[in-house]
Write a structure and sequence with these properties.
Elements lengths: L1 E5 L5 H10 L3 E5 L7 H5 L3 E2 L3 H6 L3 E4 L4 H9 L4 H4 L5 E4 L5 H13 L3 E4 L2 E2 L2 H5 L3 E6 L2 H12 L2 E8 L2 H31 L4 H12 L2 H12 L9 H17 L5 H18 L7 H8 L8
Parallel strand pairs: 1-2, 1-4, 2-3, 4-5, 5-6, 8-9
Antiparallel strand pairs: 7-8
C-alpha cells in the first residue's frame, strides 16, 4: 500500500515516521522541504509538490496546522486533490471546521475518491511516542481500509460515526474542554500564588485528586512557568475556539464559556503570547492577579 503523507510539522513529522517504520511505502511532502530530509534518510520518497505525492497514493494523509494551509495543499499550485487517483482515500487529520470537513467529503465523493476525518488528541511528544488517540469518522469500509495506517500512529482508534464531520465535532468539543481546564487551572494557580502558597504544593494536590495526564502535563507547565517551546501554540488554540463558536452557532448550541475562552486567548495573543504554549493562559491569569511570571 502506497501512503502519501503531507505535512511534516511538530505533529506530522513524528506521525509520518511511525507510518514509515510500520513498513508502508511512504512518499512525503512538506512546504519547508528540509523537514522531509530526516524521513528520506529512513527510506521515504520525497515529493517536490503536493500533486506529485498524491498521484502515487492509495491513501493520502494530511496533517496541517490550519484550514488555510490545508486548502493551499489541496487546491494550490499542483494541488493534491486534482492528482489523487480515483478510488484513493484521503485521511484528513488536521483540526478543521465541521463545515469544511463536510465540504471535503462531498468534493471527494464527486471525484470518485474517498474521505475520512481522523483528527487526533495528543501533543508532539505523544505523537513521537505513539500515544495519540485517533478519532475516525467515515464510511465503514473506509475506516477498515485506513485502520492499519491509523493504528501505526497511535495507541488507539476511536470510531465516532459514519459522517466525517462527526470526528471534527468530537475533536473541537475535546479541545474546548482542555481550554476550559487550562483557564480554570491558570486561575487556581494564580489564587494559590497570590495567597503566598507554593505552586508546586498545589500541583501535587491536583495530581493526587484528579489523577489525569491532561491535568498533570498542563498543570506541570503552569506550575513551572514553562510555556516554551510550545506543544500547541496559543494562536492555534484561538483558531480552535473560533471553530468551536462557528459549530455552536451553526447548531444553535449556547456555549458561553467558549466566548470567554476565545477572548482570553485573543488577549494573550495581543500581549505577545501567541507563539507560546496555550497553557500560557496561566501566565495571563497571573498577570491579571498582579503577579509576574517571568519564565517562558
Amino acid at each position: 500500500m502506497k501512503i502519501a503523507f503531507i505535512g511534516l510539522g511538530n505533529m506530522g513529522g513524528p506521525m509520518a515516521r511511525l507510518v514509515l517504520q510500520a513498513g508502508f511505502d511512504v512518499i512525503v511532502y512538506n512546504r519547508t522541504a528540509a523537514k522531509a530530509e530526516p524521513l528520506r534518510e529512513l527510506g521515504a520518497k520525497v515529493a517536490v509538490t503536493p500533486g506529485e505525492a498524491a498521484a502515487r497514493a492509495d491513501i493520502m494523509v494530511t496533517m496541517l496546522a490550519d484550514e488555510a494551509a490545508l486548502r493551499d495543499i489541496l487546491d494550490g499550485r499542483d494541488g493534491a486533490v486534482a492528482h489523487l487517483p480515483r478510488g484513493a482515500l484521503h485521511i484528513g487529520m488536521s483540526t478543521v471546521s465541521v463545515a469544511f470537513s463536510a465540504q471535503l467529503a462531498k468534493r471527494h465523493a464527486d471525484l470518485d475518491q474517498a474521505y475520512l476525518a481522523a483528527p487526533v488528541f495528543g501533543r508532539p511528544d505523544a505523537a513521537a511516542a505513539k500515544k495519540l488517540w485517533v478519532l475516525a469518522a467515515g464510511r465503514a469500509d473506509d475506516i477498515k481500509r485506513a485502520r492499519p495506517v491509523l493504528e501505526s500512529m497511535g495507541q488507539g482508534v476511536l470510531e465516532v460515526g459514519d459522517d466525517p464531520a462527526q470526528a471534527n465535532t468530537m475533536k473541537l468539543a475535546g479541545n474546548y474542554m482542555i481550554a476550559g481546564m487550562l483557564q480554570s487551572l491558570g486561575e487556581s494557580f494564580a489564587l494559590v500564588r497570590k495567597a503566598g502558597m507554593p505552586a508546586a504544593q498545589f500541583f501535587d494536590i491536583v495530581n493526587k485528586v484528579f489523577k489525569s495526564p491532561v491535568y498533570e502535563n498542563y498543570g506541570g507547565q503552569i506550575a513551572a512557568e514553562r510555556f516554551s517551546p510550545p506543544g500547541f501554540k496559543m494562536r492555534l488554540g484561538l483558531k480552535d475556539m473560533r471553530l468551536v463558536l462557528a459549530a455552536a452557532d451553526a447548531s444553535e448550541t449556547p456555549m458561553p464559556l467558549a466566548s470567554l475562552l476565545h477572548d482570553r486567548m485573543l488577549s494573550a495573543a495581543a500581549r505577545g503570547m501567541g507563539d507560546l504554549d496555550w497553557s500560557a493562559l496561566g501566565r495571563l491569569a497571573a498577570q491579571d492577579a498582579g503577579l509576574s511570571l517571568e519564565k517562558t
